[in-house]
Amino acid sequence: MNVIYLLLTLSIVVALVFFVAFILSVRNGQYDDSYTPSVRMLFEDELVGAEVSVDKKKNSPLNSGEVEEKEKLS
Amino acid sequence: MDRLSCYHCGDDCGKNTIAFDEKKFCCNGCKTVYEIFSSNNLSYYYDLQAAAGASPREVYNKYDFLENNAIVEKLIEFDDENVQVVNLYIPHIHCSSCIWVLENLNKINSSVTGSQVDFPKRTVRITYRIDRFSLKNLVVLLSRIGYEPSISLNDFDNKPKAVNRSLTYKLGVAGFAFGNVMFLSFPEYFDLATSTASGGEFWLNQYQGFFRWLMFSFSLPVVFYAGQDYFISAFKGLRSKMLNIDVPISIGISVLFIRSSLEIIFNWGPGFFDSLTGLIFFLLLGKFFQQKTYSFLSFERDYKSYFPIAVTRIPSNGKEEAIQVYDIQKGDRILIRNMELLPVDGILTKGNARIDYSFVTGESEPLSKVLGEKVFAGGKQMLGAIEIEVVKSVSQSYLTQLWGNTVFHEGRSDSFRTLTDGIGKRFTILVLGIAFLAMSFWLFYDSAKALNVFTAVLIIACPCAIALASPFTMGNMLRIFGKKKCYLKNAEAIERLALVDTAVFDKTGTITTTKRNVAIYEGMQLTQSEESLLKNTLRASNHPLSRSLYDMLAEQNIVTLDDYGEYLGKGIEGVISDDRIKIGSSDFVRDAEVLPEENTAVHISANNSYKGRFVFHNEYREGVSEVFRTLSEKMQLAILSGDNEGEKERLKKILPKLTPLYFNQKPTEKLEFIKSLQDEGKKVLMVGDGLNDSGALAQADVGIAISENINVFSPACDGILDASKFRQLDSYITASKKAIKIVKWSFALSLLYNIIGLYFAVTGQLLPVIAAILMPLSSISIVAFTTLATNMVGRKLE
């Protein structure tokens, strides 16, 4: 039965990984400008020379909680 | 109406269309930009958004100061041996075409290695190699394609500002913990682990402690990190003997945390960790929502945003050099080019000065100065280049003195008690009263329950929903206002706006348009040939008055003049065959001095006989009288103008009877006027447009700046209103009053929840599960209610 300790620990570790990823992405300024990337992605590809940072995560800090919950459910 | 609009900028081409590449352009500048774009494969610019460009302005040697390394160093963010990074503010950024072309600068010049636009802030960060390129080249390149960056004294120390993201982190921490704690409390909710005796779930009984301690550890960072602002604010409030809303919130949080911890330590129950983390999460959400700012607008401008960063100094050996404004010494001779701002007070030593002080005094007429006369900082030279000898350094000049007024240095928020804080005081006293009453009752009745009831009351009455009502209402209202082109600095500005009972307006540029395009002709009728000559002579001139007069007159055939002369500061002269026309100031047109006029006028003589004059009037904005009529029913009005009394009679016709009019007001007098009104206990709204109103705008309870181009500039204020929306001013005030009503309704709604919760608490049957349902339910329903209600109000706004 002690496997529950292991499972809970694992799920919390996974959740923490997501949490740290969120903090880092905020710190790197990913949420500073939420408008320009949405326009930038519509440009023709061969013309975009600048390196574009695309948010891989959902676009709102409020979703971080959801992500971990899903982790735990699975 | 066959209107040709320019392919590049969309302006009306008028008479002098330039056809190129089967497209029409309004000026050479636009055509040049088009050529640059099309020769560099950038014509996709025009596919993204039609006519998105701006006509480039002439840039002679305006940016020579960027050759001075000391100045460049102040502007750039990063510098190593061959690469520099600079972050430039470009007001013209307004659509996807702008983003696209600025991010593809490297196609125009390969020295640019990367550029990234931040649209909300209207900035672009550009990385470039400096082996064959420099900041000056870059700025000139940008100006040539119509994206002139704005570089002012404000950018002098362009250190990347540390962004404060702590609220986002706190929200992350609280949300993270809230989600996890909710999960961990599930077994408790379903009461699966009542007791081993009644044969509860064995498995959960085994691990109950583990679950609870996990919840406890999740709540630690939430209380001590995410919630710390509430404790700090409550402490500050108490120290200044104020019971703000954060006091009951802090009490609630502490009681929740202490009681929950005790419960799990002594194994009395599961504690309220889910409510605790949820509460802080929702509170922070409200704060986050309220944080909406219009970062591309600056509400905190002082004279630095208007001043150039460098001037041209003329040393005795005659070699011009660019120096930083701060390095100007008394006795220096400096060069002021056409349309440049005087950064310091000085004495005119060379050239024709015609200086527009409207920025500083509100006087709309440029003043002519002769050699040896004093000129003051903040004036704008309108006519060719001049040289002045400096008599005072920047920090001692007249304009800078104005900013020394204390009104610019004290935040107003300390004196203003928000609606929420107002209710916070009564609320705290009430809740504590109920808690003590309930406790004393239970002490007699069943002393074991007394402490339990006391804490339960404090927990359930924690004014989470009350604290949310205002941020969500105001935050949403701020967004709605912003969509309607009325940009307010913060949520508090809406509350203040709802309370105003007096409105004071500046005249020039506020209730009048900045373009002077109404002229009335007084004098003898002109013959057909004279009219044609007049129009054709005006065509040749670039003076703003000639341009606006030219646009007003009827179309004439274009004829080439035989002779044309322009006399700086006096007027122009045109000759066709043997007809001669003189257009200009009265002493130029007829050789006699006339009485000074109150309004701008252009005089005309044909063949040396005086014909008449065009008198220019300021045109009033659309709907001015309507705005004044509706406002006068609700509040007192007044007009404060830095201008002379020339318009007095016309104003009287437009405005409601008995509106007080004050003319020739200096900036400090305006400020004092507002102050005296406030001393009478009035809540004053000041509507202005220029630097000359800035003191009054800062002093007033609400200062709103009217701006015809919100990206250009506006003085420090609480809100910026797009000039096209001037006639809706009244509806914004009404909407803000409604917003206050919505907040009050939300208070009532959240009190209802509190009463339900209190019933459970006082009777001693508050279970964690009830708290866990009531708390989010009340918060979410308040958020839903305020959002719906504000959207309803917003729909009524035009």
Automatic annotation (TrEMBL), chain A:
Keywords: Membrane, Transmembrane, Transmembrane helix. The gene is ccoS. It comes from the Bacteria. It comes from Aggregatimonas sangjinii. The keyword Iron does not apply. PANTHER family: FIXS PROTEIN (PTHR41532). This is Cbb3-type cytochrome oxidase assembly protein CcoS. The chain crosses the membrane at residues 6-26. The keyword Transmembrane helix applies. InterPro entries: Cyt_oxidase_maturation_cbb3.
From TrEMBL, chain B:
GO terms for molecular function: ATP binding; ATP hydrolysis activity; copper ion binding; P-type divalent copper transporter activity. The keyword Ligase does not apply. Residues 5-77 form the Putative metal-binding domain. GO terms for cellular component: plasma membrane. Residues 308-403 form the P-type ATPase A domain. It comes from the Bacteria. Keywords: Cell membrane, Hydrolase, Ion transport, Magnesium, Membrane, Metal-binding, Phosphoprotein, Translocase, Transmembrane, Transmembrane helix, Transport. One of its GO terms (biological process) is copper ion homeostasis. PROSITE patterns: ATPASE_E1_E2 (PS00154). Belongs to the cation transport ATPase (P-type) (TC 3.A.3) family. Type IB subfamily. This is HAD family hydrolase.
